[in-house]
């Protein structure tokens, strides 16, 4: 087979797969990634996009933020991030998913800013099924998506987007599924009150919605967003010298020696907490008042956005896994950050190094004398 024939064969297979996708999934889902809008601002010149947009406002300015990690930290701790200017848009005659916050035009395309990125929507956060769900036509007041996308992404992506959207349209309804975690409902009631919460499992075809663009690089949180959250949720700190955010109740992700770590923490005078057992208000107050936070890598550390008195964070990474999102969040808030790496076990679990944790705690105690 000649190179040209090989190329034509490969292109033909892709075309066949695309055609089959569209036949099976419909014009919206089947058209991803060919039919999607990465940036409304970039495509506003197109009439089919422009007729759905009545207003665009700047949500955050373009900026570069830097994270001053110690020189001996390895290079995977990223020292800077360039953020593009992001916007919020008042849209008309669009479809909105209460499950993920995804927004798309009737018949497509998908507006990726509503969910973050194409990579996310096709990969770990796959939502291609959502345009196939039943649709309910809603008329009346504007809506803002308030999707329960898991604590980390909800707190650091969905919540600040909703707060900004409500600043543009203060009388909007918050759209969410029928069943949501208690923290989602508590935050919604704080923001708009029970009467303006719209709970729906069907896709909503709405007259108007406010779309505040989500950062496409999940894990990077601008300082402006942190300040926006703190302003929207003022918190009275609960005084706590040091807390350990245990994952003992998370059987799939707990350290294999989690119980031993808890004992060591208590002996060191550290308060052991289970974030999943705490109300949204209690989590805010606890993290707002803690001086030292120790935790395995996990969503509980997203609560660092509420930290007002924190001086130090110690994170336990599992082996062969690294994500510096909480390291950057700590440094963004001016909190000293350190970490340890757990050791793997034959069963595929991991063991936190108690001696290293103890040394770091003693080091912090000595520094505070």
From TrEMBL:
A molecular function (GO) term = protein O-acetylglucosaminyltransferase activity
Domain Glycosyltransferase 61 catalytic: start-end pairs? 151-314
Listed A to Z, the keywords are:
Endoplasmic reticulum, Glycoprotein, Glycosyltransferase, Signal, Transferase
Catalytic EC class: transferase
Q: Which superkingdom does the taxonomy of this entry point to? A: Bacteria
Reaction(s) catalysed by this chain, per the record, are: L-threonyl-[protein] + UDP-N-acetyl-alpha-D-glucosamine = 3-O-(N-acetyl-beta-D-glucosaminyl)-L-threonyl-[protein] + UDP + H(+); L-seryl-[protein] + UDP-N-acetyl-alpha-D-glucosamine = 3-O-(N-acetyl-beta-D-glucosaminyl)-L-seryl-[protein] + UDP + H(+)
Query: Which Pfam family, an example, fits this chain?
Result: Glyco_transf_61
Q: Does the keyword Glycosyltransferase apply?
A: yes
EC number(s) per entry: 2.4.1.255
Listed InterPro entries = Glyco_transf_61_cat, Glycosyltransferase_61
The name of this protein is: EGF domain-specific O-linked N-acetylglucosamine transferase
């Amino acid at each position: 087979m000649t190179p040209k024939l090989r190329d034509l064969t490969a292109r033909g297979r892709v075309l066949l797969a695309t055609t089959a996708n569209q036949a099976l999934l419909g014009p919206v889902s089947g058209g991803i990634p060919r039919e999607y809008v990465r940036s409304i601002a970039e495509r506003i010149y197109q009439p089919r996009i422009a007729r759905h947009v009545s207003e665009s406002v700047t949500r955050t300015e373009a900026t570069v933020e830097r994270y001053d990690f110690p020189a001996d930290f390895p290079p995977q701790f990223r020292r800077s991030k360039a953020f593009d200017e992001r916007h919020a848009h008042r849209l008309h005659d669009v479809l909105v998913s209460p499950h993920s916050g995804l927004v798309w035009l009737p018949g497509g395309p998908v507006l990726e800013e509503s969910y973050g990125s194409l990579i996310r929507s096709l990969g770990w956060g796959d939502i291609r099924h959502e345009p196939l769900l039943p649709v309910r036509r809603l008329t009346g007041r504007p809506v803002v998506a308030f999707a329960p996308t898991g604590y980390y992404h909800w707190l650091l992506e969905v919540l600040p987007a909703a707060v900004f959207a409500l600043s543009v349209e203060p009388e909007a309804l918050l759209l969410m599924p029928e069943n949501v975690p208690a923290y989602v409902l508590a935050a919604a009631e704080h923001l708009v009150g029970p009467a303006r919460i719209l709970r729906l499992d069907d896709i909503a075809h709405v007259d108007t919605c406010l779309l505040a663009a989500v950062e496409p690089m999940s894990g990077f949180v601008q300082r402006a967003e942190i300040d926006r959250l703190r302003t929207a949720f003022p918190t009275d700190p609960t005084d706590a010298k040091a807390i350990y955010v245990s994952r003992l109740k998370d059987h799939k992700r707990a350290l294999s020696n989690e119980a031993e770590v808890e004992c060591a923490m208590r002996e060191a005078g550290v308060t052991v907490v289970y974030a999943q057992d705490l109300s949204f208000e209690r989590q805010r107050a606890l993290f707002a008042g803690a001086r030292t936070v120790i935790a395995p890598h996990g969503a509980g550390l997203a609560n660092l956005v509420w930290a007002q008195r924190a001086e130090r964070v110690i994170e336990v990474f599992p082996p062969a896994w690294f994500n510096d999102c909480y390291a950057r969040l700590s440094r963004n808030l001016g909190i000293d950050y350190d970490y340890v790496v757990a050791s793997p076990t034959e069963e595929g679990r991991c063991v936190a190094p108690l001696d290293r944790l103890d040394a770091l705690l003693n080091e912090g105690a000595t520094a505070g004398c």
